């Protein structure tokens, strides 16, 4: 699984001109599910994201985790994170898991974040979404459950 984690002061997502998710301080997380991903990948990403220390402490050092700042997560499923752009001009999405595989793993990720005590909202899986955010910093991190630490 891949994730783009953006520290935000606020973020929201709309589907068909209606708000379906909105947070204040926290992370906007774009999540892509690849062929071969498992519940272990979802759990790994959830734990890593919840434990990241990228919020500033009283001396301005990135030293605080999401829970320490009463932050939330807005999670958006985004298969395009698995795009392969190496050949030609049109991206290939052959590395992305099919929706019937990706949807349950995305939901597992969401539940794993929730079980760690972090409020989480989501977009609508498979829908065309409009996402707005105010990136705080900016801080943007790329995570991949298959790249060894």
How many helical stretches? 2
- Terminal Cα separation, in Å? 14 Å
Radius of gyration, in Å, reads 15 Å
Strand content: 35-45%
Biggest beta sheet summary: 6 strands, mixed
Number of strands: 8
Order of helices and strands: EEEHEEEHEE
Percent helix among the residues?
10-25%
Mean pLDDT: 96
Structural class: alpha/beta
Poorly predicted runs are none
Per the principal axes of the C-alpha atoms, what is the gross shape? globular
In short:
The chain has 149 residues and is α/β, with parallel strands linked by helices. The protein contains two helices and eight strands.
How would you characterize the overall build of this protein?
This protein has helices spanning 39-51, 99-115; strands spanning 2-15, 18-23, 26-32, 53-56, 62-65, 72-77, 120-122, 130-144. The protein has 149 residues and is an alpha/beta fold. Helix 2 links the parallel strand 6 and strand 7. The longest helix is centred in the C-terminal third of the chain and has 17 residues, at 99-115. The protein starts with a strand and ends in a 5-residue tail after the last strand. The relative contact order is 0.31. The model has no long low-confidence stretch (mean pLDDT 96).
Labels describing this entry:
two-stranded antiparallel sheet; six-stranded mixed sheet; alpha/beta; single chain; 149 residues
Secondary structure layout plus pairing:
Layout: E1 2-15, E2 18-23, E3 26-32, H1 39-51, E4 53-56, E5 62-65, E6 72-77, H2 99-115, E7 120-122, E8 130-144
Parallel strand pairs: 3-6, 6-7
Antiparallel strand pairs: 1-2, 1-3, 1-8, 4-5
